[in-house]
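Hey L., structure's done. Input below.
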Amino acid sequence: MALAIRRWRRAGMTRRWRRAGLLGWCALGLLLGWAAGLAWFIRVADRAESAPPRADGIVALTGGAERVETALRLLSAGRAEWLLVSGIGPGPDLAVLARRSGVDAAALTPRVELGRQATSTRGNATETAAWVRSKGIHSLIVVTAWYHMPRAMTELARAMPGVALYPAPVEPEGSHAPGLATARLLAEEYTKYLAARLDLTALRAERPPVPARGAHAG
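Output:
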C-alpha cells in the first residue's frame, strides 16, 4: 500500500513538472515572439517617409513636441487646404501655436481647427473622421512622432477606410537616444500598437476632455 502511494505521488509530481515545463516553454515562445515583433516594429516605425507634395488635409495628433509646429509649417507651405490639430485640449490657442511655428496665424486661422475632444489615439481617429467628413477630404497627411505613427495609422485607417493616409513623422529630441528610457518607450508603444491592431482599444472608454476656454479656431 505504501509503495502504491509513493508511486502515485511520484506520478502526480511528474505530471505537475511536465505542465510547468510546458507553460514555461509557452511563455518563452510568447516572449521571443514579442521581442521579434518589437524589432520589426522599430524597423518599420523608423523607416524614412516623406509626405506627398499636396493632400486635401493635414492632421496633427498632439501629445509630443514638434507635431503641431510641423503641421502648421506644412499648411503654410501649401501642402494642404485644411488642418486639424486633434486632441489639443484646453491649452494654447492658434496664435500661440503659430508663434512657436514661425508662421502667420492670421493667414491660417480660417483653415485650422483645434480639436479638443480626443484624449487617446482612438479618440484622435474618431475626431479626425468626423472632421474629414465635414470637409469632404479624401487624402490626409498624418503628423505625429515616428514611434507613434504605426498605431496612429492603424486607428485612422480603421476609422476612415476610404481616405488615403500619408505619414509625415517627426523625431522628438532624444527619441532615438540609446538607453532604458527609449527602450521602455518603444516597448510600451509596440504593446499599444498590438492592442490597436487587435481592436482592443475599443474596450477602453474615452476619457472626458478637460473643459476648454474657447472651443476651436476655424
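The helical segments are 2-45, 67-76, 94-101, 105-108, 121-135, 149-159, 180-197. The first helix runs from residue 2 to 45.

-- N.
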